[in-house]
Amino acid sequence: MIREALLIGFHTIACVQFAFSVYYDFTYTIVPSAVGSIHGAYGGKFKFLTFWNAIAQAVFFFLCVLNDFYGTNKIAPKNVPIFRRIKDYFHATYSFPLAMFVGITFWGLMAVDRELVLPKALDPYFPTWLNHLMHTMIMVTTVIEMFVAPRQYPRRRNGFIGLYILMLTYLVWMHVIYYKSNVWVYPVMEVLSLPLRIAFFVVLFAFSGFLYYIGEVFDHLVWGTIKRTSNMAPRKKKSK
């Protein structure tokens, strides 16, 4: 009972914080076109993968709450409820790899040159706490989820298909925005030649697949032994 209560509390807080970050970013972080031309360009907030990811995290933790009440958090349930199946697939395919992808690439580029991802001119419009909610807490909460709740990973092929459909969709969307506005969503695209841009996309796609694999390995390290123990049926005593 205590474990279930803690899970409900964690999932609810995570869901609320990401839902609030989406609401606040959409409603209040209005950047004038004179400060950042991309912010007034075609697509609105939906231009940014960070915004997509924050929505995905809010949806995922809402699924967790539904699973807490109407599904199960057992390690290896014999009959897996629908909410548990959806939650497990969503976390493996979207929530974990996407959160780690956004967080690692954002902070990695920030360490190289912050002007490539979050220019200083945006500081008055994009508060630090919101930055950490959308670029730091996404990684913290998805890793905590790995430790506190078990999941059944989908077949790797099915997971990769779901992940790469999402990544390809965003890649096409980026080019639609460029076609409509003649500006790239991220300034780093401006400084790369076409061959380097293609190589950059290939590396990022490979990196996202690697993160999916890391999530699978991480889940096995945390829960593998426990799952095997749970799946071992007790031996029946032979009748004399």
From TrEMBL:
InterPro entries, alphabetized: ADTRP_AIG1 (IPR006838)
Keywords linked to the UniProt accession: Membrane, Transmembrane, Transmembrane helix
Annotated transmembrane regions: 51-70, 91-109, 129-148, 160-178, 198-218
Keyword Chaperone: no
Cellular component, GO, one term: membrane
Compartmental location: Endomembrane system
Bilayer topology term: Multi-pass membrane protein
Reaction equation(s) it catalyzes: 9-hexadecanoyloxy-octadecanoate + H2O = 9-hydroxy-octadecanoate + hexadecanoate + H(+); 9-(9Z-hexadecenoyloxy)-octadecanoate + H2O = (9Z)-hexadecenoate + 9-hydroxy-octadecanoate + H(+); 12-hexadecanoyloxy-octadecanoate + H2O = 12-hydroxyoctadecanoate + hexadecanoate + H(+); 13-octadecanoyloxy-octadecanoate + H2O = 13-hydroxy-octadecanoate + octadecanoate + H(+)
Family according to the record: Belongs to the AIG1 family.
Name used for this protein in its record: Androgen-induced gene 1 protein-like
